[in-house]
């Protein structure tokens, strides 16, 4: 697998609200460090970086626009020349113009990282794959939270993360490690 010169790094929902303890127990405590590894590599190589910011429609959300949780974490602030995509639903393609911007820029390969694995990351990766993009998900640069399944069985964040990646791999995206991506670049 080859990392293209114009591959875009899509960083999903790295906002202050995702750090709220009320979201519960999470997996992959080093995910942010892996995202920063990729972000540094992307910036040094001049590849496109896309920051996705969730603006929730729900006042109970950690991403409700009228409080500080909606703001990007300092370490993930967009820099000049980087794209900002604002979304109101988990899928970064839905009603944002992202697909048109990518096609206009000639970008066909997407590296997707961020939160939550089973929500915005999975939703965005599914659409990317369905639209024909070469989507990669960095499994160690994503995380999620403990969650009850449909039948009320509590699943650990590790189980939720693994199932989400399993849903994506081979059908919608290629799931790889950060190390693999950096080695391919």
UniProtKB/TrEMBL annotation:
Pfam families linked to this entry: Isochorismatase
Keyword Calcium annotated: no
Supply the alphabetized keyword list: Hydrolase
Recorded GO molecular functions are: hydrolase activity
- CDD domains xrefs: nicotinamidase_related
Q: Does the keyword Hydrolase apply?
A: yes
Name the UniProt record assigns to this protein: Cysteine hydrolase
Its taxonomic path starts at: Bacteria, Pseudomonadati, Pseudomonadota, Gammaproteobacteria, Pseudomonadales
């Amino acid at each position: 697998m080859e990392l293209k010169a114009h591959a875009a790094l899509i960083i999903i929902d790295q906002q202050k609200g995702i750090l709220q303890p009320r979201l519960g127990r999470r997996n992959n405590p080093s995910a942010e460090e892996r995202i920063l590894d990729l972000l540094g590599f992307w910036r040094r190589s001049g590849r496109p970086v896309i920051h996705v910011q969730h603006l929730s429609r729900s006042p109970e959300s950690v991403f409700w626009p009228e409080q500080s949780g909606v703001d990007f974490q300092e370490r993930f602030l967009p820099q000049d020349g980087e794209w900002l995509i604002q979304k109101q639903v988990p899928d970064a393609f839905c009603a944002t113009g992202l697909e048109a911007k990518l096609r206009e820029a000639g970008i066909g390969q997407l590296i997707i990282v961020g939160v939550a694995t089973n929500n915005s990351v999975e939703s965005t990766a599914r659409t990317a794959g369905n639209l024909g993009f070469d989507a990669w998900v960095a499994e160690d640069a994503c995380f999620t939270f403990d969650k009850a399944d449909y039948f009320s069985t509590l699943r650990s964040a590790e189980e939720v993360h693994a199932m989400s990646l399993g849903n994506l791999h081979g059908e919608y995206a290629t799931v790889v490690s950060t190390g693999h991506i950096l080695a391919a670049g």
